[in-house]
Amino acid sequence: MINKNSPIPIYYQLEEKIKGQIEQGELQTGDMLPSEREYADHYAISRMTVRQAISKLVNDGYVYRKKGTGTFVAEKKIEQPLQGLTSFTEDMKARGMTASNRLIHFKTIPASTYVAHSLNIPVDSPVYEIQRIRLADGVPMALETNFLSATLVQGLSEEVVQSSLYDFIENKLNKKIGHATQIIESSIVNETEMELLEVKKDSPVLLIERKTSLEDGTPLELVKSSYRADRYRFIINMERN
Amino acid sequence: MINKNSPIPIYYQLEEKIKGQIEQGELQTGDMLPSEREYADHYAISRMTVRQAISKLVNDGYVYRKKGTGTFVAEKKIEQPLQGLTSFTEDMKARGMTASNRLIHFKTIPASTYVAHSLNIPVDSPVYEIQRIRLADGVPMALETNFLSATLVQGLSEEVVQSSLYDFIENKLNKKIGHATQIIESSIVNETEMELLEVKKDSPVLLIERKTSLEDGTPLELVKSSYRADRYRFIINMERN
DNA sequence: TAGTGGTCTAGACCACAAG
DNA sequence: TTGTGGTCTAGACCACTAA
What we know:
Chains A, B: Residues 8-76 form the HTH gntR-type domain. Chains A, B: Keywords: DNA-binding, Transcription, Transcription regulation. Chains A, B: This is Phosphonate metabolism transcriptional regulator PhnF. The structure is a homodimer. Chain A is built from eight helices and nine strands. In chain A, strands 3-4-5-8-7-6 form a six-stranded antiparallel beta sheet. In chain A, strands 1-2 form a two-stranded antiparallel ribbon. In chain A, α2 crosses α3. By secondary structure, chain A is of the alpha+beta class. Chain A has two domains: 10-73, Arc Repressor Mutant, subunit A (Orthogonal Bundle), CATH 1.10.10; 88-228, Chorismate lyase (3-Layer(aba) Sandwich). β6 of chain A pairs antiparallel with β9 (234-239) of chain B. The structure holds a DNA duplex.
């Protein structure tokens, strides 16, 4: 079951194996896992390698350790939330819906003070502004506006925007996305949103402003979205310290 | 600087030391850290111990590793978000405000179907229901209702509720909080909220439903809150996969 | 080629939990 | 007392990066 000659790291093989056993029900909630020494003996690997595998599972909330007692399968989390950073497309897919776009505009503009500050670039330097209606199963779900530095993200086109922006950044530009900070607030639709989102006057919306950064902390993207409150709820999972 | 005879683990001492250097500016954004081997030599500890310290820092987003190159200080995150799970009191403190409560009611009720399902207990089993107005600097910020199983959390009283619920659970009952799942939506105030939150008719509110679980996954608490949209924004940080 | 992080080993001693 | 996870050592080889 564990291939020591595989280029896939042993700890990762073991991690996936245990995760699979939990998902398949072979290991049930509350069950004690074999001890680290048992895993080590059984697969003829070092205990430190076993610990590396289990540590990942602890981090992801699949299992928890009890000092002096053992390692146990944790209860499953209720609704699967956004696992870290997801694009709108991935988010909708996870909710069982199909995402599509309606491009409102794609242009290059000089950075406003706020955008420049957010992206940590000079005021008036070129910025891509992309505005789209995001649809789920054909129904308007959100109005989204993205701002990206045209200096950092070169070669962006309407075609790329219509497919996957994150794919382009991660695979074509070879930049690794690190983390995002999101500010979520509640509001009432304005005139533009009312028309584009096809809702009544004074309907509530969820405003989400996301600032995404690369692994080294360089600001990559500023996104402002207005989600229809009647069709969208934001779900997140927060782990203990 | 590193005390090998201290009961405090070496990896933790090193982790705190490096974190301090980053916060004090001795190590600046983009700076390369000494290599793992240098740390090991310098403090006469094993490289694996150094890795353990640095891994924590990578997880927390302080530094990032570049294969074959080195470890670097990441850019600081913009606004400090809720670091994992925080209580209302801690949250307000982080925002530079003082929190206070106005207890609406504290009672024991039979669990409704929804509450029973959320807390994974039988319908009609006893549940504490606590409703409070949460104030920041004396101004109403949110209306919050908590539901806790009276079987799991025994001995809860009005006094405890007035001070710190989490302190009571973690230190008196000795139960470790694990994670929480939150559902965030946008809405318009109802009559009750309008009066208690002292806002006008049709004002927007941020609805947050939080389900908190213990380390082993046992549901601990269900909280439903309505935050005034004009005074509260929810800020979160999401890390890469 | 030299240096870095990524992975792995085969031990060791400790504190803690449970019988 | 036995078994568990928590910490730590002193090596090793690998793939990758940069000079």
